[in-house]
Structures are given as structure tokens and as C-alpha cells.
Design a protein that fits this description.
Elements lengths: L8 E2 L11 E2 L15 H32 L3 H13 L2 H14 L2 H18 L6 H28 L6 H29 L4 H22 L15 H6 L4 H15 L4 H12 L7 H25 L1 H20 L5 H29 L5 H30 L2 H28 L4 H4 L7
Helix pairs in contact: 1-4, 1-5, 1-6, 1-7, 1-11, 2-5, 2-14, 3-4, 3-5, 3-14, 4-5, 4-7, 5-14, 6-7, 6-11, 6-13, 9-13, 9-14, 9-15, 11-12, 11-13, 12-13, 12-15, 13-14, 14-15
């Protein structure tokens, strides 16, 4: 593997290897083969590593900061968490569309990473639900802009048969940062109790490092319209005419509505275990550790056995985690099992879903199409957070709310399986169904 600093690579013309690039200044940058991942994937992974250290430092302490220091109610926190999860709904589409339209995904990413960096300092001034919501909205706007273009770079520099491995490798590096971030937050809060400001300032500098790595080391992939015209709004939404793509979007969105946000899971664990506030960030560390260990294996299994099967297996692990959390016993074992299952869920769904979508999409609309799927998931999680906060407030506790979500997810999983199975077996997709092991 190597990290490329090429400035002008393009996607290949028809007949050249899928995902290949050529540069007018420095020669070709080809997708890695033989079980390796491309240098561009590694470079993007380091960007995400530093950025996730930054973002997860904040995410790990945000529930406590908002409830204990800012004074939000569970319902208000649910609304803010919904913004955190879903404010990028429309922006994701904008990011993917601009990436395809301008054919310069790296610089769309740069704007997104820059916005998220500056918001870390803005947290120093928040003191109300409205101010918090505004800062979170800007931060998530940055995430929305960068996610699809980043995934388009990964897909453009990787062979289709290795999409699962490439996305799994990136997500593993991303998750390594997600594990380090909460650990740093824990160390800071242990050394200086309730010093949330110190967490936010440290987070800002890690975000700056991630942005610098993007600018200096991620290749400036110049997407070329292979097999179609320039991106348009009509063409993007026209992707839903494909029944496989439509089933992927609808099912991913419906399952996202029934996914309890990490913040609520951690708050439930803290209440059940009665742990001190400075231990709270370690919950995110435990989840990230499981995600880190399982991301690449899950991607490889998805490439071999079918991405859709692995995706639904991840949601089955999530349901099992809910049941463990609702069990009668409460202790360290409960926390470890629950966080491991949560990490398994992310390993089997995050990169796997992007790989499944990338396989179905034409090259010239790949960024927009991935954004379309991510938008559906983000919208579902926005609804999920608000709904969970409402149920917690109105029904008298998070245990009842979690029970409702667990029952609903248990009902939805077989429905999701039937939907995709019927789609793959439909006459218009019969030829594609024969190759579903490398698709869904």
C-alpha cells in the first residue's frame, strides 16, 4: 500500500479497469489488487481517523454535557440528538450531487471537514437548547457534505469485487479514531473533572490535523462521466427506478427508524450500572473496539456471502443488544456484551451498506447514489431519536421506550428480508439475482 499525493487523477474511459485513474502530471494511480487496498483508501482512512478522534471526543461527552450542564430534558436531548443524527439529510444529497456535478469530490470533502472543525470551538459558547441545536446543525452539515464524496473516492480507487474490503478497511481506521477519542475525553475529565471546555478545544485541534491530511495526501480524483451525462437532480432520483436500489433505500430507512441512538444506549447503561460521569466516555470506547475488530472481517464476509445478508445480521445483533440491555441482570458483563453487539451492528451495516449501494450505481452517479442511501438512513435516525426521547418522557423512562423499539425491530427484520428477497427474485432482476453474492 502507498499514499498518493497525485493532483490530477481521472476515472478511466470505457474499457479501462474499473476504478482506475490516470493523472496528467504524475502517471496512473491504479486500484490495488491481490488483497490489498488502494493508497487513496488508506489516506482517506487517516483523515477519518483524526476526524473521528475529534468528533467522538465530543459525542462521548455530549449527552452528559447537555443534560447535566446545559440542563436539557430527555425530550429536548432527543430533539438535539435527532439533529445530530439527521440534520444532514438534505445536505448529504447536496454533497453527493456537487461531487458528481463538479467531479471534484476531494474539495467538497474539504468544505465539510472544515465546517465540522470550527464547530468544536463553538461548543464553548453554548448555553441553551437552541444554541446547541444551531452548533450541532452546522457540525452535521459538514458531515453531510463530506460523507458521500469521501465514499465516492474510495469506490473510484477500488475494484468492485473488493468494495467490501475497501470500505471495511476505511471504517476500521475511522473506528480506531472513534475509540481513541472517547479515551482522550475520559483522560481529560478524569484529570480535570467536568472540564468539558478542555475536551472541545482538544477536539478542534485533532479536526485540524484531519483536514490537513486530506489536503496534503488524498488524491484529487477527477471523476469523469463514464456511461452517462453529468449529474442532474432528475438523474439522481431516477436511480430509484431500479427496484434493487429502491428496496435498499426503503429497507435501510425503515430499519434506521428503529435504531436507538448510541447516546440513549449509553445513558441507559449508565443508569442501569450507576457509574460515575467520568466513566461515561468509556462506553463509546467499548463499542468502537468491537467495531474496529469486526469491520474488515465483516466487509470480507459481505463480499463473499452477500452484503444484504450481512446487513440484516447486523440488525439482528442490534436487537440482541436491546434484549441484553433489558435483561434482569446489570453489571460489567452486561455492559461488555451490549457494547460488543452494538459494535457488531455497525461493522455489519455501515461500510457494508455503502458497498452494496456502490455496486448498484453507475460511475457518474455514484456519489449522489451513495448520498441518497445515506440520506434515507440519516432521516430514519432523526425520527428515531425524537421518537425515543418522546417515549422516554411520556411513558416514564427509557426502559419502556427501549422495549417498544425492540418489539418493533423484531417485527421489521423478517419484513425487510422478504422485501429484498422478492426484489431479487422479480423477473426484471432475474439475471442480477444470480450474482447477488457480489451485490446485495
Amino acid at each position: 500500500m502507498y499514499v498518493s499525493t497525485r493532483n490530477n487523477p481521472d476515472l478511466p474511459a470505457d474499457g479501462e479497469p474499473a476504478g482506475g485513474m490516470s493523472g496528467s502530471n504524475t502517471g496512473p494511480a491504479r486500484p490495488a489488487r491481490g488483497g490489498r487496498v488502494a493508497g487513496a483508501v488508506v489516506a482517506a482512512g487517516f483523515v477519518s481517523f483524526f476526524t473521528d478522534i475529534s468528533s467522538e471526543m465530543v459525542t462521548a461527552v455530549l449527552p452528559l454535557f447537555l443534560i447535566l450542564q446545559v440542563g436539557l430534558t430527555p425530550l429536548q436531548y432527543g430533539v438535539v440528538d435527532g439533529l445530530y443524527q439527521g440534520v444532514s439529510v438534505a445536505v448529504r444529497l447536496v454533497g453527493g450531487y456537487l461531487s458528481d456535478r463538479w467531479r471534484r469530490p476531494k474539495w467538497v470533502c474539504a468544505v465539510g471537514y472544515g465546517l465540522s472543525a470550527v464547530t468544536k470551538l463553538a461548543f464553548l459558547r453554548v448555553g441553551s437548547a437552541s444554541a446547541t441545536g444551531l452548533v450541532v446543525a452546522v457540525d452535521r452539515t459538514g458531515k453531510g457534505l463530506r460523507t458521500a464524496p469521501r465514499d465516492a473516492i474510495i469506490a473510484a480507487t477500488s475494484p468492485p469485487a473488493g468494495f467490501g474490503r475497501a470500505f471495511g478497511t476505511h471504517r476500521a481506521m475511522d473506528t480506531a479514531g472513534a475509540m481513541v477519542g472517547p479515551l482522550l475525553a475520559f483522560v481529560i475529565l478524569a484529570a480535570i473533572p467536568n472540564s468539558f471546555d478542555s475536551v472541545f478545544v482538544t477536539s478542534f485541534w485533532f479536526a485540524v490535523v484531519g483536514l490537513a491530511v486530506l489536503v496534503l495526501f488524498v488524491p484529487d480524483v477527477r471523476l469523469r462521466a463514464v456511461g452517462g451525462p453529468a449529474a442532474s437532480v432528475r438523474a439522481v432520483f431516477g436511480l430509484l427506478a431500479d427496484r434493487r436500489m429502491r428496496a435498499l433505500v426503503l429497507t435501510a430507512a425503515s430499519l434506521a427508524v428503529l435504531t436507538v441512538s448510541d447516546g440513549f444506549v449509553y445513558l441507559t447503561l449508565q443508569q442501569r450500572l450507576s457509574v460515575a460521569t467520568d466513566v461515561f466516555p468509556l462506553f463509546a470506547v467499548g463499542m468502537a473496539a468491537a467495531y474496529l475488530l469486526l469491520a474488515v472481517p465483516a466487509g470480507r464476509v459481505a463480499d463473499r456471502l452477500g452484503r444484504w445478508r450481512v446487513f440484516l445480521t447486523g440488525h439482528l445483533a442490534l436487537l440482541t443488544g436491546y434484549l441484553v440491555l433489558l435483561g434482569t441482570s446489570a453489571g460489567v458483563v452486561t455492559a461488555v456484551v451490549c457494547l460488543t453487539l452494538l459494535g457488531c451492528y455497525y461493522a455489519c451495516t455501515d461500510g457494508v451498506l455503502a458497498a452494496a449501494a456502490a455496486e448498484l450505481l453507475p460511475d457518474h452517479l455514484r456519489g449522489s447514489g451513495i448520498a441518497l442511501v445515506q440520506t434515507a438512513v440519516a432521516g430514519g435516525r432523526l425520527v428515531s431519536s425524537v421518537l425515543f426521547g418522546l417515549l422516554w418522557t411520556e411513558l416514564g423512562g427509557q426502559t419502556v421506550a427501549l422495549t417498544c423499539f425492540a418489539v418493533a425491530l423484531a417485527v421489521e427484520l423478517p419484513v425487510a428480508w422478504l422485501m429484498v428477497t422478492r426484489t431479487r427474485r422479480s423477473p426484471e432482476n432475474s439475471s442480477e439475482a444470480e450474482n447477488d453474492h457480489v451485490r446485495l
